[in-house]
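User: Can you recover a sequence for this backbone? Please restate the input before giving your answer.

Assistant: Of course. Working from this structure:
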């Protein structure tokens, strides 16, 4: 039997990461704003408060936060840190601003609790089937959480990026690259649609997925969306998500 891990935040990312971990032999103690009966049916142990969650974990405790960035993370840290002991690991696996991660690390480092900032990529599918993790924090605490994250990642999809803040900083840069690629794909598709010729866009994208220098998961997703639905009603502009600030 593998170790017991706490996960706070059982939404699309946290819930699917929990399911993957359970399938791989981990016992997951989960806590969420809303009761998740479907996860309980898959053998997740659900608790109602942080005290119960911490009580059911063995030292050194491993707690993963998959929460919306900002105030919610700060409030949870204030709530759970007094319940943890020196040597325990608290990892923020959400999309927090890297400067906040450095501040949080400095806030709790004297307690002896290890704070990890973990950039998580791969979306819902990655959380369910194998993600990509980029962590920042002290090397010692990185080794404590490394076996778990490597187990939940695709092969090669784990890196200790550097000191506190590095995990969320490289995820920020990653998101900038991703959004740049999305913009390029969108503009390219616009040119193809307006070419005047009736091009087979699905066939083109399928071709580009094989051997092309622009082959990527994003190109694959574009092709899959064209196959599954009419995209004419999708707006050509979306607001800044704040993930590259």
């Amino acid at each position: 039997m593998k170790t017991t891990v706490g996960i706070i935040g059982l939404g699309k990312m946290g819930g699917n990461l929990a399911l993957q971990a359970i399938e791989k032999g981990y016992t997951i103690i989960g806590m969420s704003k809303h009761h998740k009966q479907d996860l309980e049916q898959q053998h997740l142990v659900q608790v109602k408060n942080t005290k119960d969650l911490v009580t059911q974990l063995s030292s050194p405790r491993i707690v993963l936060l998959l929460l919306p960035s900002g105030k919610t993370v700060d409030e949870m840290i204030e709530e759970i840190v007094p319940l943890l002991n020196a040597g325990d690991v608290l990892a923020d696996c959400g999309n927090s601003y890297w400067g906040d991660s450095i501040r949080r690390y400095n806030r709790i480092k004297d307690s002896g609790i290890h704070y990890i900032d973990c950039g998580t990529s791969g979306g819902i599918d990655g959380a369910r089937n194998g993600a990509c993790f980029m962590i920042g924090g002290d090397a010692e605490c990185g080794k404590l959480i490394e076996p778990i994250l490597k187990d939940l990642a695709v092969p090669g999809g784990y890196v200790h990026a550097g000191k506190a803040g590095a995990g969320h900083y490289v995820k920020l840069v990653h998101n900038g690259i991703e959004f740049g690629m999305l913009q390029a794909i969108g503009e390219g598709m616009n040119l193809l649609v307006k070419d005047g010729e009736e091009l087979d866009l699905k066939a083109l994208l399928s071709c580009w997925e094989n051997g092309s220098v622009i082959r990527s998961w994003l190109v694959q997703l574009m092709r899959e969306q064209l196959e599954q639905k009419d995209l004419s009603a999708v707006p050509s502009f979306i607001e800044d998500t704040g993930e590259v600030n």
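That completes the design. The chain has ten helices and eight strands.
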